[in-house]
Amino acid sequence: MGFVANMVSLVLYFNGVMHFDLASSANTLTNFMGSTYLLSLVGGFISDTYLNRFTTCLLFGSLEVLALAMLTVQAASNHLHPEACGKSSCVKGGIAVMLYTSLCLLALGMGRVRGSMTAFGADQFDEKDPTEAKALASFSIGFCSVQLWEQPHESLVLCGLALKKHSIGGFP
């Protein structure tokens, strides 16, 4: 899903809605991104060794969707936002559990799907068949095009819900 486009939105979300200071927002985001990239190595290993690529994509894609749903519910519900406290992070209790659980599930889902999704799509084609070899090239171009189109559009949903009631960084 739109990984890079959501990163800017997450910094705004952490800073404006969850009341992290800017340094804590950036630190939380870099920890999340690092976890996602490291888990993509684990995902590739798991899909090649223990599960097949389809099962990996289905299982961990479901975790990714669950995590995005949890983040969306938290962004849309005012009672799941912490009160401003003037510290580096005001998130505590059940709000912190929901936020960090959804971020961990999102990193787990994104990382493991990332390691197997493209290879799973390419597995559908036989390179020795000339017709399918052309289709493989079309698939690669189409897959990249969809990824580039999806990233900016997906971030608008999460960011729009989170910042709907807050005036943060250019969002009315």
Short description:
This protein is mostly helical and 172 residues long. It is 74% helix and 0% strand.
Structure description:
The protein has 172 residues and is mainly α. The protein has 6 helices and no strands. Helices cover 74% and strands 0% of the residues. It is elongated. The model is unreliable at 167-172 (pLDDT under 50).
SSE map:
Layout: H1 3-17, H2 22-49, H3 53-76, H4 93-114, H5 117-122, H6 130-162
By DSSP (H or I, 4+ residues per run), the number of helices equals: 6
Low-pLDDT segments, ≥5 res: 167-172
Q: Give helix % range.
A: over 70%
Tertiary shape: elongated
Features:
elongated; disordered C terminus; mainly alpha; 172 residues; single chain; 6 helices
